[in-house]
Amino acid sequence: QVQLVESGGGLVQPGGSLRLSCAASGRFFSAYAMGWYRQAPGKERELVASVSSGGTTTYVDPVKGRFTISRDNAKITVSLQMNSLKPEDTGVYYCNIKMRGMDYWGKGTQVTVSS
Questions:
Q1: Can you say how many angstroms the Cα of residue 39 is from the centroid of all Cα atoms in its chain?
Q2: 114 and 11 in contact (C-beta within 8 Å)?
Q3: Which candidate, 86, 97, 90, places its Cα nearest to that of 6?
């Protein structure tokens, strides 16, 4: 069983920054990818960024150049540095781990970008 706990969400003005963190615990049997998803009001959950077990990062186009994902394998954490935030970045952000074909999710943290 894998547990994920997110932190770092909040209210920020457009152009501001936030850093999300996710701490994982449990049993990790093999290589696993870590990522962040978000769900805006009335929309489906979508991938924002991911980092593979080897450190390869992937970003969706709207966040490229603004967001940076990083992981610490020793501490089993993944972070998302979000800069130049826009109102359309508003949503609930979920931490995700993919391992052996399974998806593990945190409960989410709210990010609101508004003036």
A1: 11
A2: yes
A3: 97
Residue 29 has what pLDDT?
77
Residue 78's CB: how many other CB atoms inside 10 A?
27
Beta pairing, strands 102-105 & 18-26: unpaired
Residue 63 amino acid letter: V
Give residue 111's identity as a one-letter amino acid code.
Answer: V
pLDDT in tens, 64-106: 999 999 999 999 999 999 999 999 999 999 999 999 999 999 9
Collapsed DSSP state (helix, strand, coil) of residue 88: helix
Q: Which of 85, 40, 36, 42 is nearest to 59 (CA)?
A: 36
Residue 14's nearest CA partner among 93, 112, 81, 94 is 112
CA angle 1, 27, 100 (to 5 degrees): 80
The DSSP output letter for 6 is E
- What gap in Å lies between CA 20 and CA 18, rounded to an integer? 7
